[in-house]
User: Fold this.
Amino acid sequence: MKDETCVHFLQWALPQMRMQWPGFRRVYGQVCKRLTKRVKELQLDNIEQYQDYLTTHKEEWITLNRLCQVTVSRFYRDKMLFAFLASEVLPALAIHAIQQNKDTIKVWCIGSASGEEPYTVNLAWHFQCQQQFPELNLAIVTTDANVKLLDRMEQACYAYATVKNLPTAWRDEAFIIKGELYCLKPAYRGDIVRLQQDVREAVPGDCFDLILCRNLVCTYYDDALQMETMLRIQQQLRPGGALVLGIHEQLPAGITGFEAWSEKVRVFRKGETGA
Assistant:
C-alpha cells in the first residue's frame, strides 16, 4: 500500500471515529502496516475496496478502531519528566498523603501499553523516594484498551531498546537478562492493577493523586472528544493532585481548575477547589 493512499484513507476514516489526522502524522506507518495486513485478511485488492467494505459492514469499524491504536512506548521516556516526578512531584504528593493520614499514593496510567510507563513510575518511587517515605505505599492502576499489551505487561520482558534510557544502576538492579530480553524482577513490579479499559468509555472507580495521560487523549482524539474525556479524567484526580500530559501536548481549550506545576515537562496541579 502506498503511503499517500493510506494517508488519504486515514484522513477520511479518522474523523468518523472522533480522531484527528495531525496526531497520526508521525506514526501513521504503524497503522498502515496493520491496514495492509487487514486488507489481505479480508481478501480485498486494495484500500479503496476496504473503504467500500466499511460502508457495508458497520461492525468492521470496531476492528479499524483497534488497528488505529498506536503503541509507541519505552522505559524512562522523556528523562526530564521522570526526573521531575521523582524529585518534585512524588515527594510533594507523599507529604500531602502523610498530612492527610493516608498510607498510599494512588497513580493512574492511561494507555499503559506494555507497562513501560507504570513500571518506570514504580522504579522512580523505589529508587528515589521510598527510603524517604518508608511508611507510604505506591499503588498504580494501569488501563489500556488492548488486552494483548496488558498480557505483555504481566510478562514484563523487554528488548534492550525499550529499557536503554533507564539509569544504568536501576536497570542493572531491577532486571535480569534472559536471552536477548530484560525481564523486570518481581520485587520491582510494585502494587499494580491492570485493567482492560478504553478511557473514552470508562474510568477506574477511584480517586488518584497522580494521573499520567501522555500522548493519547490530547494527541489522537478530536477536540470535542478531548474535552469530554479530559473532564472525566479531571474528576478522578483529587484536589492538589498532579496530571501529566505528553511533552508536546496542551490541555484542551476550556479545561479549567489546573495550574502549571512544570510547563516544560507538562505537569499540572489540580486546584484545591478544582472540578
Strands lie at 104-110, 137-144, 157-159, 175-178, 181-184, 191-196, 208-212, 237-244, 258-262, 267-270. The longest helix spans residues 79-99. The chain has a mean pLDDT of 95.
